[in-house]
Amino acid sequence: MQDKPVALITGANKGIGLQIAKDLAEHGFTVLVGSRSLENGETASKSIGSDAHALQLDVTDQDSIVAAAERIRNEFGRLNVLVNNAAISHAGKPGDPFPSSGATTSGLLTVASLEDIRSVYETNVFGVIAVTQAMLPLLREASAARIVNMGSTGGSLSWNSIPENSHRAMFGAYSASKSAVHAVTLAFAFALESTNIKVNAACPGFTSTALNNFAGTRSVEQGAREAVRLAMIGADGPTGTFSDEDGPIAW
């Protein structure tokens, strides 16, 4: 057991999740690097320093989630921040981890298989719900806890409803899953409104990561910025919001 606040970041062995873990460690947190592969999580933790610990966590596996929650309670005794970062843009196939036609094209609901759509939702939506539910007992015990879900402007129904918005042509399984994450964020925020737990969604912008085959135009440092801010907001901070570092984003 230790006195530092503890933050769990899912999908933190690389990309934006790893950067969020690095930034929170620099702000005095003990960070738990959630990773499907414990080996990859340990490698990432070593790159952060002594305040980072690898945690085997597959957000699509209930047994893995329960085991992670038990380890946090037994080994760290607390959880102050949960960042639901783990996400996929497509259902990966062996030998073709990124679709040759692009995730946005292959994910269009006119062509994507139900199996592939379910795979995206299992990680991006149901994974967020499952991990949050499992960690709530720990978060409720904290004097002030924060939940940050990684949203996306690509899932903004308001933005995508504008006819002139070219992104409309790419609105498929991934974008729809992020719309669902926004709704899930509000559902948890409303349910926890009377508690000391604040729940918000952060948009990282078009960040260069494996999620988009490194086609993004923003750095992981930029992509992590808003999630880190929301993880550390004070008692007077908001709940039930969606924002990036420039301010609120329309749902």
From TrEMBL:
Keywords for this protein: NADP, Oxidoreductase
InterPro entries per the UniProt record, alphabetical: CBR1-like, NAD(P)-bd_dom_sf, Sc_DH/Rdtase_CS, SDR_fam
One annotated GO molecular function: oxidoreductase activity, acting on the CH-OH group of donors, NAD or NADP as acceptor
Entry-linked SUPFAM superfamilies: NAD(P)-binding Rossmann-fold domains (SSF51735)
Gene3D superfamilies associated with the record: NAD(P)-binding Rossmann-like Domain (3.40.50.720)
PROSITE patterns attached to this UniProt entry: ADH_SHORT (PS00061)
Keyword Transferase: no
The keyword Ribonucleoprotein belongs to this UniProt entry's keyword annotation: no
Family: Belongs to the short-chain dehydrogenases/reductases (SDR) family.
PANTHER family: (+)-NEOMENTHOL DEHYDROGENASE (PTHR43490), SHORT-CHAIN DEHYDROGENASE_REDUCTASE (PTHR43490:SF99)
Full protein name: SDR family oxidoreductase
